[in-house]
């Protein structure tokens, strides 16, 4: 029997919890709230107590309120300066999510007398010093560098000196990425700024509370410690909504039952052969809308995810031409090449419309509030389970039922869908891979130097920063020193005695205000502006229109090309007839290991299976290891070859068992091979845009870590050749 001292403390009632938040509780939850969600119930007290917490819960569970309400309530109890200061910094992965968070937080904060602002390339509210500022990692970096208050050549204050808490939204998008590593460095620098503020008498404490939230985190405790700090912990509340998929052959929504296997679900996935079969896609989407009306289940709003901007343009126009003849319905488009105004207009129109279809790329994958969505259409499978949950989580928030129309365009996609949906149904997420991207150190050295009032830092300061961010053995091999030496040899940095300053090229980039100076995003080229000739509004940037003339489908509308010089001029046109679409300059994404594993599972095989399957009269070895593993396999076994259409999934006949066993034993040979292929493999492993500024030996070490040589050897040794007949 438990002693009284060992019994868990009783959980306060919802009303008591909200009352403890004081006026903040009424502002965020209303005076007549019915009940808190479970994640709100569990998160309020530890956050109010000052703990750094990662909150993981299902979509639409109220995570934003669970985090922000107690953060604000706690800050209101702490001493504050008489003049306006930024006290809570909210970091979001996209500008669209920044806007969404602003729309959700501004009203309850205003009720408390707190100002809320945004700081991105689209909105610049920092100068009025709102109590809560919502930003991106790139603008966070820029503010650290550019917003010091100087007096007689010394920093005496800083825009962010009074920030006492940080809330990071959609933290899963910062896991295993260069931007995530950058955020770790930025939080360390903010912590240093807080200690400086104590020295200057600007604040009495250097404490910094860091919290984060997401619906899809595979290892929340690991990510909490890595991103939020060594003392951070995770709070996970399991939960999921009923999932239904539409089966066109039977014209019915069917629930995904617990225990459904990947291959069972695979056979229920609609398939349309042909990568851009717009007419067939339109018919399937109309079947969902039509059937809903026929049975009285009104499906008014659909969100359609497509894999490319080009298909977004093509499908949105085709849907608009077909659906509006059958039903009064808006059809809108949303992708990254559209200008901010055009994207926000589509979001707003979809949100307020009664009947609408919104065709989007990944730009709407996370958190943006676009109102009620009855069902989600997925044209092609997402790369992993987390991405699938983010996309389909937009549907059914009102009914509690997530309805999905998955559409595969070949058998590979059908198999991947089967496994992804099976894992999503059971709440099984793909594991992340924790490595250090030293390319981020290059960017942070430039940024940290530029932050100094004299734009110079000692070598020891830069090395100490690295050891503070990654305090274990990562720095013992002298990587920071080798990187600094290399940057000096390349004249990116200039050494004067013990001080380092920016070289001419980096100094010019910083002075010009180029956003890339503050970022770690691998981005496509901007391209040329596309202008609506009727209004003069720039609506997008694209790569070009060489060889194109006449009619163009773009951004959910049909246009006529009327000018092609420094700008591409378009004029609205009537629908009908054929049309072209713009080229966007995107390169084909590599096949990631997670996606390849889903294909294998969806085909009905175990994780260790490496089946031999005949395709078009040729026997192929389905290793399903992803693009990077395949490149190394082809070097280990040069008499094998890649197969078009199956990148990262299959190669020609497998090596003989004895050759396979020999390769597994030669781990050092594999390591040397990966090192020799560092730069080609880097294009498949996302080391970050500053990777090319690393010295050769560090580039090799980074790629070896990203690739995972020991993991590859274990994987190769576990392959079980399986013949199918």
From TrEMBL:
Pfam families assigned to the protein according to its UniProt record, in alphabetical order: DEAD (PF00270), Helicase_C (PF00271)
Keywords of the record: ATP-binding, Helicase, Hydrolase, Nucleotide-binding
Gene3D superfamilies: P-loop containing nucleotide triphosphate hydrolases
Span of domain Helicase C-terminal: 291-443
GO molecular function annotations of the record: ATP binding; ATP hydrolysis activity; DNA binding; helicase activity
Domain Helicase ATP-binding: 44-235
Source organism, top-level taxon: Bacteria
PANTHER family registered for this protein in UniProt: ATP-DEPENDENT HELICASE LHR-RELATED, ATP-DEPENDENT HELICASE LHR-RELATED-RELATED
Name listed for the protein in its UniProt record: DEAD/DEAH box helicase domain protein
